[in-house]
Amino acid sequence: MIKTLALRLVFVTVATVFLCMASLPIMAASITMNVGFGAPEESLYGQFGKLFQAQVEKYTSGNIEVKLRCCNQISSEDEAFKAMQLGTVDGFFITANNVSPHWPLMDVTVLPYMFQNAEHLDRVLNGEVGQMMKNRLQKDTSVYLLAFGPALYRDFYNSIRPINSMADMSGLKIRVPKNEVMIATFEAFGANPVPLAWSETPTALQTGTVDGGDNGTSFIKDMKFFEFQPHLVILEHFVAFAPLFASDNFMKKLSDEQRAQIQAAATDAGREMAVQMATNTEEVRKWLVEEGGMKRTDPDKADFIKAAMSVQKEFAENRGLEFIALVEAIQSAAK
For the whole model, what pTM was predicted? Predict the structure, then answer.
């Protein structure tokens, strides 16, 4: 009798627990998005990442958590795109020129002196041409380009001499990313380009394996290159931007609503970052000279632009009709 009563009490207790659980609201499963980048936490990538993180928190009410992984924690910039194709990395900020080996059409944005000014660049990246590029990249590679992000000029620097004309580039060993357009550009400028992965670059610059290189202006400060590269040269030859990408594997984990929320968060973060960075280039250049001790030169760009036009022509002829059509679309956006 006592045993039977005990069993009934156990049954009632278990049933009560299940009823209580059933009455609770069903909570959405929490999803984590690990987003990596190769630069320090406080770099532009980190700043952009924090804005994206905050926007995702807002749009998803905390149901999707973005965790930022700086300094090549989950992949290197050179390997991250392939990792996203394989589904082993959720998201990554990758400089556009490092995307080209995986999707050659990206090289249209790498061509020297391709964009006339900031307004032209904005019309391209945030207009019809930019959306077409996003759609085509996703179709060709499965990787999503969520936001192009803010764009800055790449500034040139070296440890050997000031550059007052293109003739001063002769013989300089210049680190370049493993990108065909950038290699051809520095060859046209008269330098000796040395292709190196980003992970190898700081050491190569510090030890004198190479004489100089170029980066988005803020990276010269963030990476403290001013400590051993005394000559800052304003060429404005390449535009640097690092889009935020996401893997198809991650995006498939999301509902249609969540995918739209992630896209909206990336778009808003990119816009906010662009506003913050509007005056950044000149401010950082001033800091590099006044605080960092670099010596700045602003050479006449005529010879550099002439050499760059030959590079544009060469790649347009060799890359085929799609590449040419995209070049023409970018040029039309300037009008």
Answer: 0.86
